[in-house]
Amino acid sequence: MGNWVVTHWFSVLFLAAWLGLNVFLFVHAFLLFEKADKYYYTRQILGFCRRTLRKQLDHNLTFHKLVAYMICFHTAIHIIAHLFNFERYSRSRQATDGCLASILSNLSHQEKEGGSWLNPIQSPNMTVEYVTFTSIAGLTGVIITIALVLMVTSAMEFIRRSYFEVFWYTHHIFIIYFIGLGIHGIGGMVRGQTEESIDESHPHECAEFFEKWGDPDSHCKRPQFEGLPAESWKWILTPSILYIFERILRFYRSRQKVVITKVVMYPSKVLELQMNKRGFSMEVGQYIFVNCPSISYLEWHPFTLTSAPEEDFFSIHIRAAGDWTENLIRAFEQQHSPVPRIEVDGPFGTVSEDVFQYEVAMLVGAGIGVTPFASILKSIWYKFRNADHSLKTQKIYFYWICREMGAFAWFNDLLASLEQEMEELGKVGFLNYRLFLTGWDSNVNFDKATDILTGLKQKTSFGRPMWDNEFSTIATNHPKSVVGVFLCGPQTLAKSLRKCCQRYSSLNPRKVQFYFNKESF
């Protein structure tokens, strides 16, 4: 086997380039399918499927990254194989020993007008760089490779978090990328023997007699070659059509008028917008994309809905965390100027939609990450007030971790209402909430019946939760329940909670099971 590879290394490299291309195109088809934001609709279609199947949808961003890594890997294989191929092409063109490779290369001189050339390097003086930048395959290959490098590097977490505009605009190079990919194979750089030529001069029979090709006494005629048809457009056509259709739909929805009914500014630079939009319908925990044309026509940012489906408006809470959000808050703070126009696209589904499918729910929010749980807690308040007996959830554990005291302000009214509602309905034990302050203020006075920070009966804890103790307590209190753990927070916290879910889930499927769910945008 090793000797065969050494002898036929050119064929092996060509096969590697071909396989790399086909896997490359196959993965691209998945990328375009995934890129279209059908997430909300897919969750609705799979709403009656098993929990394990539905949970796979919540890893959409992980899948997106995995597809991107696969594209980079097979791009490298494809490029490296072609670099070796071009080196072989160059040496074959310059060869003067009359070998098979030299004779095949000379077909470009003898029969180029008939389209039978095989070696893209047409003369010994022609360089690989010249062929690369003057052929369709070479030029588009360079363009889409540069586009891929820009998209991948700008998507690094540091750039995405600190320079979102760079990530946002650079990622839209994918339009140029897929156009280049679609026409990459049009030039016919990859060539094969024609069917008629194979019948007349089969390579297995005539390759050894290449010196007698075309002789009247030889049964082997000079082989004829043609460019293989382009295949890339077939892989990306259907997902591209779906993506374009989805973008048209989103554009239509985003152009519908949004009426801002209320603007509230909270401490710690948190802005609440209450809005109305014709035909808008939501579920708990969903999110929308928001655009403010006066700040940027192209930037759309995701925000979790903090209102409940039972309310006659939808709302979001926006914290100053970058240039765009700071400019938006500043625009709404100006009292003598008109209210900025807002465009909304959505809503889109998230893992939090499934919260009421669990007997016990464990909600963990870090900082502004509490927003999806605001919608859930509001909905619970309405369900209890309206005596909704369809509620499957029997117990909710809510944890909120903040760095500053001011961050609690906008959520206090909701928690206070829930406290009062639970007492009146005799369901004090339904909601168990814990507030954790990671910052410390030595001037805080603790000698009061209610919490000095929030005014709630539940006192605020300082530091971070001891998750092993929390999970152990919940597992003991609910030995036969299915517990849904929902997090909206940083990745480090997600790792800790995921490990706890695995550690405290019983091996017996009939006993307590913890299912981890993380919000991803």
TrEMBL record:
Cofactor(s) needed for function: FAD
Lineage: Eukaryota, Metazoa, Chordata, Craniata, Vertebrata
Topology in the lipid bilayer: Multi-pass membrane protein
Stretch forming the signal peptide: none
PROSITE patterns associated with the record: FAD_FR
InterPro entries: Cyt_b245_heavy_chain, FAD-bd_8, FAD-bd_FR_type, Fe3_Rdtase_TM_dom, Fe_red_NAD-bd_6, FNR_nucleotide-bd, RBOH/FRE, Riboflavin_synthase-like_b-brl
FAD-binding FR-type domain mapped to chain residues: 253-354
SUPFAM superfamilies: Ferredoxin reductase-like, C-terminal NADP-linked domain, Riboflavin synthase domain-like
Source organism: Catagonus wagneri (Chacoan peccary)
Transmembrane segments: 12-33, 66-84, 130-154, 166-187
One Gene Ontology molecular-function label: superoxide-generating NAD(P)H oxidase activity
Annotated compartments: Cell membrane
Pfam families to which the protein is assigned, alphabetical: FAD_binding_8 (PF08022), Ferric_reduct (PF01794), NAD_binding_6 (PF08030)
GO cellular component: monoatomic ion channel complex; NADPH oxidase complex
Name used for this protein in its record: NADPH oxidase 2
UniProt keywords, alphabetically: Cell membrane, Electron transport, FAD, Flavoprotein, Glycoprotein, Heme, Ion channel, Ion transport, Iron, Membrane, Metal-binding, NADP, Oxidoreductase, Transmembrane, Transmembrane helix, Transport, Voltage-gated channel
Summary of the function given for this chain in its UniProt record: Catalytic subunit of the phagocyte NADPH oxidase complex that mediates the transfer of electrons from cytosolic NADPH to O2 to produce the superoxide anion (O2(-)). In the activated complex, electrons are first transferred from NADPH to flavin adenine dinucleotide (FAD) and subsequently transferred via two heme molecules to molecular oxygen, producing superoxide through an outer-sphere reaction.
One of the GO BP terms on file: defense response
Catalytically driven reaction(s): NADPH + 2 O2 = 2 superoxide + NADP(+) + H(+)
Subunit structure: Component of the phagocyte NADPH oxidase core complex/cytochrome b558 complex, composed of CYBB (heavy chain (beta)) and CYBA (light chain (alpha)). Component of the phagocyte NADPH oxidase complex composed of an obligatory core heterodimer formed by the membrane proteins CYBA and CYBB and the cytosolic regulatory subunits NCF1/p47-phox, NCF2/p67-phox, NCF4/p40-phox and the small GTPase RAC1 or RAC2. Interacts with NCF1 (phosphorylated form). Interacts with NCF2; the interaction is enhanced in the presence of GBP7. Interacts with RAC2. Interacts with RAC1.
